[in-house]
Structures are given as structure tokens and as C-alpha cells.
Write a sequence for this structure.
């Protein structure tokens, strides 16, 4: 269900001049450093959360929460799912939340509606990417 959002997130952080990071397809000979998963929770830390990066020793997980981004849900549209997936992949790449009021628009805004509405890294995000990854 979330393949489009996953593909978008990968394109967002590996295209348009951001070429330092490669996201190879999984295969039988490759050990995953990052995997995509889905959850369906509204309790505790998942309350009002559409997605999360879960950094662990070994393989990190990017989870999209069907309770909020599933079809017919609050953020169950293509644009929101893409923005959430790209935002969470940004965390996996090493970016923390950024305040849009202090530095301008950013995909890494802590709230969906404060972020880059098109789901692509902004000029600010691109500068941060280049500062971190070269």
C-alpha cells in the first residue's frame, strides 16, 4: 500500500542533485540497513503519529502508521503519505526536526502542515544535506 510513498522518499533524497546517498533494491545477497514497515496503532507514542524512524543497532526501520495514513484516514492521501515518508527517511539520514519559523520551510518540520507541502527537500534541506553528506 505504501510503495508509492517509499519510492517518492527515496527519489526525494537521492535525486535533483542530492546524489551522495544510494538506496539499492533489496535482494537475497544484500543485508538491509534500512527496512520499511507499517503499523496500525493509536496508543502511547503512536498517538497522532503518521510515521516514525526507529533507529536500532543493525537494521533501522521506517514505519508508516496505517491508523493515520491508511486509505480514508486523516492523512490517507498520496501527498501526505509521500511527505511523511520523505520526512522519516530524512531522520534515517541524520536530520533532526527543524523549526520552519527559524530558517524557512523544511521537510524536517516537526508537524506535517508546517513542512514542505510537496514532499521534496527544500533549499534549506538541500543545504543541510550537502553540509552533512557533501
Amino acid at each position: 500500500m505504501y510503495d508509492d510513498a517509499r519510492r517518492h522518499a527515496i527519489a526525494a533524497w537521492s535525486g535533483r542533485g542530492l546524489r551522495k546517498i544510494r538506496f539499492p533494491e533489496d535482494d537475497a545477497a544484500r543485508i538491509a540497513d534500512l527496512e520499511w514497515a507499517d503499523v496500525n496503532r493509536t496508543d502511547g507514542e503512536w498517538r497522532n503519529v503518521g510515521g516514525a524512524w526507529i533507529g536500532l543497532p543493525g537494521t533501522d526501520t521506517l514505519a508508516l502508521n496505517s491508523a493515520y495514513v491508511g486509505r480514508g484516514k486523516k492523512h490517507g492521501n498520496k501527498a501526505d503519505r509521500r511527505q511523511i515518508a520523505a520526512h522519516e527517511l530524512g531522520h534515517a539520514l541524520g536530520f533532526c526536526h527543524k523549526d520552519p519559523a527559524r530558517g524557512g520551510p523544511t521537510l524536517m518540520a516537526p508537524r506535517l502542515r508546517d513542512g514542505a507541502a510537496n514532499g521534496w527537500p527544500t533549499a534549506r534541506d538541500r543545504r543541510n544535506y550537502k553540509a552533512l553528506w557533501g
User: Anything to note?
Assistant: The two ends are 33 Å apart (CA to CA).
